[in-house]
Design brief:
The protein is of the alpha/beta class. The chain contains eleven helices and ten strands. The protein folds into three domains: 109 residues, Tetrapyrrole methylase, N-terminal domain (Cobalt-precorrin-4 Transmethylase, domain 1); 105 residues, 2-Layer Sandwich (Methyltransferase, Cobalt-precorrin-4 Transmethylase, Domain 2), CATH 3.30.950.10; 49 residues. The strands form two sheets. It has a five-stranded parallel beta sheet, sandwiched between helices. Strands 6-7-10-8-9 form a five-stranded mixed beta sheet. It starts with a strand and ends in a 5-residue tail after the last helix.
C-alpha cells in the first residue's frame, strides 16, 4: 500500500494525527530530502528506513518502490513540506500504481498553494496552480502569455531571488493586476504583501524577500474577444497551411476563445469560399 502523506510546510505542529499514525506503521518512507524529513520524524520519535525520491533520481528509484509495493510492503511518500505530487515527481509513481492496480491513498494535510490562496484575499472560487515557471525572462513571458486570459486566480511557486523579475514580467504581460506575495507561511516571520503588481515590485526592490515564496495574482476580468473581421483574418491565415481542425485549435488557444465559436466561423468561411480549403 502506498500512502501519499502531507507534511508541514514550516511549523512542525501542522501535521495530522492520522499522518503520524501512518508514518509510524509503514515499512519504509520515501522522501525528497532525507535531512529535511529526518528533522520531522525525529521530532515525533519516528524511526523508519528512508529512501530518497526526487526529481533527479525518480526514474531510477521508482522501480524499487514499486517492487516494495508488489511485495505488499507499506510505503509512505512525503516531500520536504506540503502535499505530495504538487510540483514534484510523485505523480509518475501514482500512475504506475494505477497501471499495475497497486493500492494507494492520500493522507491529506498542509498545502502551500491553498494556504497562499486563502491568505491572498483574492477570489478563491476558481484558481489555477502554475507551479514554477521558467527561470529565463523570455520563456517565462511566453508561459505567462499562455495564461493571460484565464478568468481564474493564478498561483505560482517562485524563488525569492527571482521574485522581482517574475513580478516585472507578470506586470508586462498582465498589466497592473492585484497580487499577493506570501512568504514563510506558518513560520515565525510569515508575511503577506497584497497590492498591485507595480507596488509589489517597488516594495521588493527595497526589501529583498527571503524564505519560501508563493505568488498569487488575480485572473483576467474580461473574456477575450475579437470582432468578426479580425477573427476571419486570423482563420484565413491559419487555413492557408493547416487543416480546419488545426486552424481552429490554433486560433482558439492563442486568443483564449471558445473552440465552438471559432469552429462556427471557420465553417462559415468554408461555405462562403470553398476554394480556400
Amino acid at each position: 500500500m502506498l500512502y501519499l502523506v502531507a507534511t508541514p510546510i514550516g511549523n512542525l505542529m501542522d501535521i495530522t494525527l492520522r499522518a503520524l499514525s501512518v508514518l509510524k506503521e509503514v515499512d519504509v518512507i520515501a522522501c525528497e530530502d532525507k535531512r529535511v524529513s529526518s528533522k520531522l520524524l525525529s521530532h515525533y520519535g519516528i524511526s523508519k528506513p528512508l529512501l530518497s525520491y526526487h526529481d533527479h533520481n525518480a526514474d531510477q528509484m521508482r522501480p524499487r518502490l514499486l517492487d516494495l509495493l508488489r511485495q505488499q510492503k507499506k510505503v509512505a511518500y512525503i516531500t520536504d513540506g506540503g502535499m505530495p505530487l504538487i510540483s514534484d515527481p510523485g505523480f509518475k509513481l501514482v500512475r504506475e500504481c494505477q497501471q499495475e492496480k497497486l493500492e494507494y491513498t492520500v493522507i491529506p494535510g498542509p498545502s502551500a498553494p491553498l494556504m497562499a490562496l486563502c491568505l491572498s484575499g483574492l477570489a478563491p472560487d476558481r484558481f489555477l496552480f502554475c507551479g514554477f515557471l521558467p527561470s529565463k525572462t523570455d520563456a517565462r513571458k511566453t508561459a505567462l502569455q499562455e495564461i493571460k486570459h484565464i478568468p481564474a486566480t493564478l498561483v505560482f511557486f517562485e524563488s525569492p531571488k527571482r521574485v522581482v523579475a517574475f513580478l516585472q514580467d507578470a506586470l508586462d504581460v498582465f498589466g497592473n493586476r492585484e497580487g499577493a506575495v506570501c512568504r514563510e507561511m506558518t513560520k515565525m516571520f510569515e508575511d503577506v504583501q497584497k497590492n498591485s503588481l507595480g507596488f509589489l515590485i517597488n516594495h521588493y526592490e527595497s526589501h529583498a524577500p527571503r524564505g519560501e515564496v508563493v505568488v498569487v495574482i488575480e485572473g483576467s476580468s474580461l473574456e477575450p474577444t475579437l470582432d468578426k473581421e479580425e477573427l476571419e483574418v486570423l482563420l484565413k491565415k491559419a487555413l492557408e497551411n493547416h487543416s480546419l481542425k488545426q486552424a481552429v485549435d490554433m486560433v482558439s488557444k492563442a486568443f483564449g476563445l471558445s473552440k465552438r465559436e471559432v469552429y462556427q466561423h471557420a465553417l462559415q468561411l468554408k461555405s462562403e469560399k470553398t476554394g480556400l480549403l
